[in-house]
Amino acid sequence: MPTYRAPRGTRDLLPADRAVFDRLMRIAADLTARYGFRPIETPLFEQTAVFERGIGEITDVVEKELFRIAPRTEEAESWALRPEPTAGIMRAYVQHGMQTWPQPVKLTTTGPMFRYDRPQAGRYRQFWQFDVEAVGDAGPAIDAEVIELGHRFYTEAGVRDVEVLVNSIGDPACRPAYVETLKAHYRGHVATLPPTERDRLERNVLRLLDSKDPDMAALNAGAPRITDHLCDACAAHFESVKAHLDALGVPYRVDSGLVRGLDYYTRTAFEFYVAGREGQQQALGGGGRYDGLVELLGGRPTPGIGFGLGLDRVALVLAEQGVVAEVETAPLAVVVGADPEDTVGRLRVATLLRAGGLRARADLGRRKLGRQLEAAGKDGAHFAVILGDELADGQVQVRDLQAGTQRLVAMGDLIRDLARAEGSHKHG
Ligand code: HAM
Fold this sequence. Notes:
Layout: H1 15-34, E1 38-39, E2 45-47, H2 48-55, H3 60-63, E3 68-69, E4 79-81, H4 86-95, E5 105-114, E6 126-135, H5 141-157, E7 162-168, H6 175-187, H7 195-203, H8 206-209, H9 216-221, H10 232-248, E8 253-254, E9 266-274, E10 285-289, H11 293-296, E11 304-310, H12 311-320, E12 333-337, H13 343-355, E13 360-362, H14 369-378, E14 383-387, E15 395-400, E16 405-410, H15 414-427
Parallel strand pairs: 1-5, 7-8, 12-13, 12-14
Antiparallel strand pairs: 2-4, 3-4, 5-6, 6-11, 7-9, 9-10, 10-11, 14-15, 15-16
Helix pairs in contact: 1-5, 5-10
Bound molecules: histidyl-adenosine monophosphate.
């Protein structure tokens, strides 16, 4: 047992894992560029109030899962690691006056989030999200556009059987009456409520609907549905979102039990699941509309919609479904030499090749040529560049380790020669 280990609920992404994440991030970057989203980075920690106000004080994420940073001095502000990026991005939207930019402002970020949750498969204390936010458009067309983008991300990543669940959770016009109806429902069962839920009944009853407590499942199944209590404007918005999704050919299912776990949502809410795993706290991703959030954080009333997709869970599902990312890590060429002591020569040639844009390694072990060639083969290198007597005439031997052939190449032609060979290898 090693003395030091990664903190509970966190993982090291070893090179093979990291390669999977890199691929997902490349797909995310490419897709969002096509859809007109621009990258943004906000700090990994914010004033705690940004999360308390934005996400809501009586939510699991803030009440139980926030990583608070212990201040070094009494008078220091209170900070917390970000459990999600939306609140921080909206803080930045307000701080930098983005309401004066052409609307909607379409932003994207990908990075680590932190939640002090009970670790289990697919649930970590540090996890990665691919996030997009479209701010300043009240929808409903853009709601469908964002959902379609999320769906396409899974398709391009190669995840099979992704299901889109959608719902509307109303707005300040219709939600208060629904909240009262919901309270009445649970008040009839107070004695059977787990302690957290009993405590939240009067303070934030909506959060009972997304409770992780298994005892709540039956009670929630019989709860009144928000979709039966939507005002006309919210109902029309929801109908239009669905019509746009139909027109785009995005397959979806309405789940009137879907409420999401954060307080800022209004109207459109959605989640992505692998079919058959709905409702198991294993959403691959989720998002929705948050028309009150910018105002909550001190800005002018501004509508917005976005999503966060959990990359750790996507990586898990890809592994389960047997989708492997092909990543080229082997060097194109390994520079070896007849004189074991001539590390300078080998390193110089490798440096030359790298400067020319090629993946090259120099064998820096002081060992015989045969052993160097053996190691190059094990590395999966395509070529060995062999420095020998020909060097005096400005030439090296290039051995194609895969074909087993060898030829003399002038040093001046080496980069072009190897680059051409790599190109024909890739495309041929
Ligand atoms: P969320 O549903 O809390 O939404 O998280 C989004 C996704 O992050 C989840 O569906 C899941 O895949 C992943 N995730 C959450 N917690 C964990 C965890 N502990 N371990 C691994 N993965 C996790 C949000 O965060 C919103 N900010 C999404 C959003 C953006 N809504 C509007 N804009």
